[in-house]
Design brief:
alpha+beta; 24% helix
């Protein structure tokens, strides 16, 4: 089954609560590739790609995130699959 990719915009109390590090650990644990970064508006943006079941599992887990986070909503849209081999944290945009 070919990989899929989803672009995520995560809103709520998601900065300053270990959310990006949690995202990296969780995505890598699920075998996903992609990236995560803070946004100047207080949201977190991510691109996750890999097996469809793993991507869906990640999005479900991201609704909760780390213990201190309070996720209000996640906007998930289809994205083109990129040539990525790992999951990393990017600088704030």
């Amino acid at each position: 089954m070919p990989p899929i990719a989803r672009h995520l915009m995560i809103h709520g109390r998601v900065q300053g609560v270990f959310y990006r590090n949690w995202t990296v650990e969780t995505a890598r644990g699920l075998g996903l590739a992609g990236w995560v970064r803070n946004r100047m508006d207080g949201s977190v943006e991510a691109l996750v790609q890999g097996d469809a079941d793993a991507v869906d599992r990640f999005i479900a887990l991201a609704q909760d995130g780390p213990p201190a986070a309070q996720v209000a909503r996640i906007e998930a849209t289809d994205a083109p699959v990129e040539a990525l081999s790992s999951f990393e944290k990017k600088p704030t945009a």
